[in-house]
Amino acid sequence: MQKQELKQGIKDSIPIILGYIPLGIAFGLLANKVGMSVIQATLMSVLCFTGAGQYIAIGIMQAGGAVFTIVLANVLVNLRYLLFSTSMVPYLKGKVPTAAGTLLSYGLTDETYAVAMNRYQNHAPTASYMAGLNLSSHVGWIASTLLGALLGSYAGNTDRLGLGFALPAMYICLLVFMIKRKSDVLVALSSALFCLLIGYLVPATMGNLFNIIIATVAGASLGVLIGERD
């Protein structure tokens, strides 16, 4: 049973890995261009494993920002994982050992969260499934970063490769998989509207850090209200 769950987790990670490949390669290329060595870029993906946070770090490094700015920006941007992990507790409690769940949650990302929550609607969570899904996804991200860093200066201008759209495209695909009811569409559109509105009203230096978190809370609250009425 555990072996089957592990295989299923690995199988479910394949679409995520395919989405990570262009993103990881692009990150490796950009990291190389800001002066990071192959080892440094790869270790960053091993120790951090936050695509958005790593791209933010590269941007701040390009602008000559301080390490403290990078750390603070990453803390704020990745606060959404506090919400993600909290919403998973009711599914994992009593089914996955706390120690194993805590360790494997290091691999929690937007993509693994979406895939896992979709499965947990009809299947009980297991540590083996989490290991297959999260660890395989992490290895895919590390490998693609390594490849990008090795390619280094050979790729030239990465903008012309169209890699910048890979991240939003992957998020859109995951969203489509999660939508099953009309209320899901309403919550998704409302969250996007909240995010755009906050980004428009709040100065860019602050809005880019907080709009996703605020929109997530607002969207989740709306989802709860709609769910109670249903």
From TrEMBL:
Coiled coil: none annotated. Keywords: Cell membrane, Membrane, Transmembrane, Transmembrane helix, Transport. GO terms for biological process: L-valine transmembrane transport. The keyword NAD does not apply. It is a multi-pass membrane protein. GO terms for cellular component: plasma membrane. It is found in: Cell membrane. It comes from the Bacteria. InterPro entries: Brnchd-chn_aa_trnsp_permease (IPR011606). Pfam families: AzlC. The chain crosses the membrane at residues 13-31, 63-83, 138-155, 161-179, 186-203, 209-227. Belongs to the AzlC family. This is Predicted branched-chain amino acid permease. It comes from Pelotomaculum thermopropionicum (strain DSM 13744 / JCM 10971 / SI). The gene is AzlC.
